[in-house]
Write a structure and sequence with these properties.
It is a single chain. A hairpin with a 5-residue loop joins strand 3 and strand 4. The strands form three sheets. Strands 8-7-6-9-10-13-12 form a seven-stranded mixed β-sheet, sandwiched between helices. Helix content is about 30%, strand content about 20%. The chain has ten helices and 13 strands. The chain has about 325 residues and is of the alpha/beta class.
Length: about 325
């Protein structure tokens, strides 16, 4: 892999613009080997945001999100199987019961960064009838778009920054799961949400939490939440709440949720395993298809939650006033 052709940029803090920072963590792209370069997370000395600096330019997205990426690669150890998906659906339904309770027939749910449309399918299955279900994402396969159209779900291939939310009617809930950490311009995203969301629209965000126990155990490298070089910024509960409230979005609740996947990725990183294909390593049992492994780390997170300790993923429910 020739790293000289990977275009990089040095930046100030992508949220507050401050140029002072301290080094935090560094590693190569252990998961997908898209580059041999060492990437660095730094921490802003003003707002405490963790961000990748330098980072790949936006035009490198197709390289750092290869076709072997787990969300589109059924051979990936991080791609779950139908049995796991059924359990995951039950957990997702329980986690989203507060949002489901808000919805009425005719409301629209917008999923920004919808991926495989898992959440939109959940709302279609368990939500009221006649919901408008819209997902936006980039590099979405045309065949998948047609498939979702047949299921009553509209997928639009567009960057969120370029999407005109006024074209949608009756948007009640906006979903942003595992998205904000991937954005090249997160401050612009939050500004757009603050401007475009109508009063009374709810926002649900899930993103890694830098104060979690697993990162405290592996702060310099290996932690799955770093996801070098695809996670471009990472938030604590405190600074994510601050940036939302600064944009006029009121926090309804914020809390930790189960995140067994980050434990698995962390220990795969420690074991030198990639995320795009299975190897002959004795540690290859650490994968998303292994119900026993998923169950073990889920129990660990249950105990952390019971003790009031943060897991690797935080969730915010907020509303535009």
């Amino acid at each position: 892999m020739n790293d000289k052709d990977l275009q990089m940029e040095h930046i100030n803090c992508p949220m507050c613009g401050n140029g002072s920072f301290s080094p935090v963590a560094s590693d190569t792209d252990i998961e997908y080997a898209t580059s041999n370069r060492i990437f660095n997370f730094v921490q802003c000395e003003n707002c405490s945001l963790l961000y990748l600096n330098p980072r790949p330019v936006a035009e490198e997205a197709s390289r750092i999100y290869p076709k072997t990426y787990h969300s589109v690669n059924i051979n990936s150890p991080l791609h779950s199987d139908p049995n796991v998906d059924k359990t995951r659906e039950r957990l997702d339904k329980n986690r989203c019961k507060d949002i489901l309770a808000l919805l009425r027939p005719g409301d629209t749910v917008l999923d920004i960064g919808c991926g495989d449309a898992r959440m939109l399918r959940l709302f279609k299955k368990f939500g009221p009838k006649d919901l408008g279900l819209v997902g936006i994402d980039i590099n979405t396969d045309k065949e998948f778009i047609e498939q979702m159209k047949g299921e009553g779900i509209t997928i639009i291939n567009v960057y969120f920054e370029d999407f005109d939310m006024s074209r949608l009617n009756n948007v009640k809930v906006v979903i942003m799961n595992e998205l904000i950490e991937h954005l090249w311009n997160p401050s612009l995203c939050l500004e757009k949400l603050s401007h475009d969301l109508k009063p009374g629209t709810y926002l649900s965000i899930e993103t890694p939490d830098i104060d979690c126990i697993s990162r405290r155990l592996f702060p310099k490298k290996y932690w799955g939440g770093y996801h070098f070089p695809r996670h471009l910024q990472l938030f604590s509960k405190k600074n994510l709440r601050y940036f939302l409230e600064k944009g006029g979005i009121e926090i309804v609740k914020q809390y930790s949720i189960l995140a067994p996947s980050f434990w698995i990725i962390t220990f795969r990183n420690i074991s030198g395993l990639n995320s795009y294909e299975r190897s002959k390593s004795i540690f290859e049992f650490l994968n998303f298809k292994n119900v026993l492994v998923l169950g073990t780390f889920t129990i660990i997170d249950f105990w952390l939650l019971a003790l009031g300790l943060p897991t690797a993923t935080q969730r915010i429910i907020a509303v535009k006033r």
